[in-house]
Structure formats: C-alpha cells, structure tokens
Design goal:
Elements lengths: L1 E6 L2 E6 L3 E2 L7 E6 L7 E8 L2 E8 L4 E3 L7 E10 L8 E3 L3 E6 L17 H14 L9 H7 L6 H7 L43 H17 L7 H9 L3 H9 L2 H25 L8 H6 L2 H33 L7 H5 L3 H38 L9 H7 L7 E5 L4 H4 L4 E5 L2 E4 H7 L12 E2 L2 H4 L4 E12 L3 E8 L4 E2 L2 E5 L8 H10 L4 E3 L2 E2 L6 E6 L6 E10 L6 E9 L2
Parallel strand pairs: 1-4, 3-10
Antiparallel strand pairs: 1-2, 4-7, 5-6, 5-8, 8-9, 8-10, 11-23, 12-13, 12-15, 14-23, 15-22, 16-21, 16-23, 17-20, 18-19, 18-22
Helix pairs in contact: 4-7
C-alpha cells in the first residue's frame, strides 16, 4: 500500500512500493489530509500521455485503487478538492508527483477486458444516487435467534414449548342455576343509515398486504394435505419468528377472506391512481420530453460538460493573453528591428555558444590554476596546455593512490552501490533499492554511470546523492569528478563532518545537516561539455578529519552524467 500526506498544495510520500503494470484493483493508495483539506470534496487525478483518470474520494473516503488502464512509464498524480459550503468558489489543488510503473511479468490472452475507470461525471452521479437512496440496513434477529445467542439449545418448537407455564389446579364445579322464564319478542328495529367508507390509509400498502397474505396462506396450505417432503416444509415453517407464529395461530379462514378482499381493493385503487400521477404536473412540451431516451439524456449531459470545460479553457486562454496584449507597444526603432534576419540571429547564437565555451574553458583553467601553479614554475613558462591538464593532475599526487568513491563499469553495483544513499522527494533509499525503482539511474546501457535524466525523473527533480563511506580530508584535498553536463550552472557539493555516533542512517543524517546549514558547501560548477571532462574542486574550509561527501544532481538543463568520483591530495 502507498501512503501519502496531502498538506497545503503538496503531496508527501509516506510509504511506497514498486509499481507494476497489468494490475486490476490491487494497488491501493491511502491519503491523510491535513488542515482545510478535511472539509473539501476531494478527487484524485492520474494522467499519462493524453489520458486522464479521476477517482472521487468525496468528503470522508481516504483510499482508492490505482486505475488498471495505466501502463509502463511515468504517471502524474495530483489531488484537488472543492468547498461545497463556501459562498464563493474555493478549489484546492496540489503540485503533481511522478509515479513510475514498471513492466510486470504478466503474459495472458486479450479475452479478459480491463474494467474501465468511470469518468468523473459518472462517479459524481453515483455519489448523488447513494446519498438519495441511503444504505440498506441489515435484518434484525428474531426472538428465537436472540434466545440462542443467550444460551438456549434446541429447535424453534422446543423453544416455543419452553415459553408455556405449568398447568394450574382443576377448579371446583359451580352450583347449577334455576331455569328462567321465556322472554317476550321485541319490536322490529328501524333501518340503519349508510355506513362510512373505510379509510384505506389505515391498511398497509399493497406490497405489504400481499407479503402478509403469502405468509398466511403458505403455512395453512401445508395442513390441507400431506407431502412427501413434510420434514423440509416443517423446517420452513419453523423459520417464522414467534410473533409471526402466534399471529398465524389467531387467523381464521374468514379473516383471510376479509384481508384478501381488502388487498384486492387496495390493488384496484393503486391501479386507478397510476394515470392520475401523470396529471400532477403538466408541460407544454410533454410530447418532446416523452421522446427523450436515456442515451439522449447522457449526450445532453456530456454536451453540457463539454460546454463548461470549453468556457473554462477560453477563460484560461483569455487570462494568459491579456497581459501580452496589455504589454503590446510600438518601437521607435522599428526599422532596425525589421532589419534583423534569421542569418544574423544564427551568427549571434554562434557567438554566444563560442562565448559559453570560452567561459567554460576559463572556469576549467581557473579551477586547475592553483593545482598547476608549482608545475608551471618548474616548467618555466606561464602557458598551460589544456590537453595536458589531466597529466598534470596525475603528477600532483603525493605519491598516494586516490580514494575512489564511485567508478562506472560492470562492478559499480556490486562494489560502490551499497555505500551510496539517495533521497528523492523526501524518500530515503540505498542505491541498490533506488535502482529497483529507477533502473536507468545506473544501468548497463550507460556503462553503469550515474544518470540524472529528465526522462526518468521528470523536469528539475533534485536527487541528493551521499557517499556513506567517510574519507579523510585536509585543506589540500581535492574532489575529482568526471562527467558530462548539458549546461553550465552552479552545482551543490557538500562535506559533512563524521560525528562520533549516528543514530539514523548516514544519508538521512547528511540531509539533516545540509538542511540545517551545518555542512561545508564547496565552490563547484557544472560545465557544459560535449564529451567527458574532469574537474577538481579544492576542499577549502575543511580542517583535517573524516567527512561524508554529498552532491545534488538535477534533472534540469544540466542533467549530469557522472562517470568517476575520486579524492586525492594536491600539493
């Protein structure tokens, strides 16, 4: 089960699992809503490619299932809600988070259809029907069932027999009375007035009367003749409650005839009332309304929904265009602007790219300048050959081999991954587990280098990567990184001193120190490059001791691709 916390306009992942495709009603999401979200009517929305699937939670529900239509790839999930009691329109939204669905091992035929996720309109209608209809209650227990729950053992007949008291003593015979004299005949009485027609509202509805007649006639018919399955019929009779059996015992055939007559009369009145119900209201266009079918009503509803959506889209476009219109103005140098051609723009772009390359090269030289200063003095010239920078870096070692924190290659997952931690969207993972959810982060297709690709993480995801193995550093130590970068940009490279004791995983401890500004931030840049380059960053500000190294890879324009990370001593 995945668990989320919805707070303000963000969604935090509390618990996660690996997602695989071809599941149906299996992966469950549970949401915890904070603050104002508790009073909103809430909807969870999933989007993949051009398809959107909405699941209504309503006011009280907190769980839903992952739509079965979602397939392998990235899926955006967000939550929105409305305040139904507000006098004005109040809509709460969240920033979407990205879920990655991996390929499952399911292989099956195409005969089993995937139950489609109902659209938002259908779900809302269903919620209204449920509210209007209510939820059916469960049947209560009979007196016999209550007696069994309280310890009685035996059949219904035995239980009824247990309700009878013991016979009383025989009474004494009374004294015979004297014969009386014959009385005189009385006068004939006058004719009575017509009786009042009984009020049918005093009798139960036809359905209830019919049910009662059915219960009355069935047991009576059992006594009229013999059956070969008499024991089965006796069990059916025994299933009646005590109240029903007593009622049956009091009913005579004449009572049955009376109730049957009342039932027939009630049925006749009901059938007579049916035509009258159509006259309770009248429409001038009754003939047109009678022609409307369920499909046409559904089409009208869809058209209304489309109209509302179109109005919203038009309003959104209008709001985005109005600022542009308001900023429209004339230029006094219109002639000069019209002279700008595509060719000129292409030349300016080439100059700009050339400038970027010069700046990047200058930065590289600046980074290396302190390292090669002594070597330049020994060479006796101020010129530095850029092609020999790597050789000079190797020559600046103090005779000791560099400490390798990561190196790409087939052994990367076995040797280095267990000592690297990752934090993404406040979720902590060891690299071995992280690659299970994001296999392209370190895979054979890129020679097991660290890839911070937009295709895997979406736009501008920030992945904190931590080397959990502490290394000994001094102010003369250097961090050597070999990488590719799509743009030149300030990077984030940190040193966190190793404490005597850590009560949490190293990755979480390092993240907390960085958040609290208790980490050493090194002067580091990503440099745009077409091929792998190597930069060395001095550990300035670090006293002698053991440190954890951490950096942030961003899936923005840089989307770096790291091949090696080493620590060396420079003179």
């Amino acid at each position: 089960m995945w668990k989320f916390l919805v707070k303000n306009q963000s969604i935090e992942i509390l618990e996660r699992e690996v997602l695989a495709d071809h599941q149906i009603q299996y992966v469950q999401f549970k949401f915890t809503f904070d603050g104002d979200w508790k009073k909103f009517h809430k909807v969870v929305q999933f989007s993949q490619c051009d398809e959107i699937y909405s699941i209504v939670l309503g006011f009280d529900s907190t769980t839903c299932y992952l739509p079965a239509e979602l397939h392998v790839g990235a899926v955006k999930m967000s939550v929105f809600g409305y305040d139904a009691e507000s006098d004005t329109t109040v809509r709460a939204t969240t920033v979407p988070i990205t879920l990655n669905i991996r390929e499952s091992g399911f292989v099956g035929d195409d005969d089993t259809p995937i139950p489609p996720t109902p659209d938002l309109y259908t779900q809302l209608l269903q919620k209204i029907v449920e509210i209007q209809a209510g939820i059916d209650g469960k049947d209560g227990l009979s007196a016999y069932e209550i007696a069994k729950e309280n310890g009685f053992v035996g059949t219904v007949s035995e239980w009824l027999e247990s309700l009878k008291g013991s016979d009383g003593l025989p009474g004494k015979d009374g004294v015979d009375g004297k014969n009386g004299t014959n009385g005189k005949d009385g006068k004939d009485g006058r004719d009575g007035v017509d009786g009042i027609t009984p009020d049918m509202s005093e009798y139960p509805p036809t359905s209830a009367v019919e049910l009662m007649i059915q219960k009355i006639t069935n047991p009576l018919s059992l006594k009229s003749h013999e059956h070969e399955n008499q024991s089965v019929l006796d069990e059916i009779t025994a299933s009646y409650t005590l109240k029903e059996q007593r009622k049956l015992a009091e009913i005579s055939p004449s009572d049955y005839a009376t109730k049957k007559a009342l039932a027939d009369e009630a049925l006749a009145i009901r059938e007579a009332m049916i035509p009258l119900t159509r006259e309770l209201h009248s429409h001038k266009n009754m003939a047109v309304l009678d022609m409307l079918t369920a499909e046409q009503l559904t089409l009208l509803s869809d058209l209304q929904q489309f109209e509302d959506s179109t109005k919203y889209d038009i309003q959104t476009i209008r709001e985005s265009v109005e600022p542009v219109i308001s900023q429209a103005h004339w230029h006094h140098n219109l002639t000069l602007l019209n002279s700008i051609t595509t060719t000129k723009v292409a030349k300016w772009d080439s100059f700009e790219n050339f400038g970027t390359q010069i700046n990047g090269l200058s930065t590289r030289i600046t980074v290396y300048s302190d390292l090669v200063e002594n070597s330049v003095a020994r060479i006796g010239t101020a010129e530095v050959n850029i092609e020999n920078l790597q050789k000079q870096i190797d020559a600046l070692k103090n005779g000791s081999e560099p400490v390798i924190l990561f190196r790409s290659g087939q052994d990367a997952m076995g040797v280095y991954a267990p000592e690297i931690g990752v934090i993404l969207n406040n979720g902590y993972h060891l690299m071995t587990d992280f690659v299970a959810e994001h296999p392209h982060f370190c895979s054979a297709e890129n020679d097991y280098a660290l890839s911070y690709s937009q295709d895997d993480f979406g736009w501008d995801a920030q992945i904190l990567t931590v080397c959990t193995k502490a290394v000994s550093l001094t102010e003369k130590s250097g961090i050597m990184i070999s990488y590719l970068s799509g743009a030149t940009e300030d990077g984030s490279l940190y040193l966190v001193p190793k404490p005597e004791k850590i009560d949490v995983p190293v990755t979480i401890y390092v993240n907390n120190q960085i958040t609290a500004n208790d980490a050493i931030s090194l002067n580091f840049k990503w440099l745009q490059s077409e091929s792998f380059i190597t930069t060395v960053t001095e550990c300035s500000g670090a006293s002698d001791g053991e440190y954890f190294l951490a950096w942030v890879g961003r899936s923005n324009n840089t989307h770096p691709f790291i091949r090696n990370i080493k620590v060396l001593e420079v003179s």
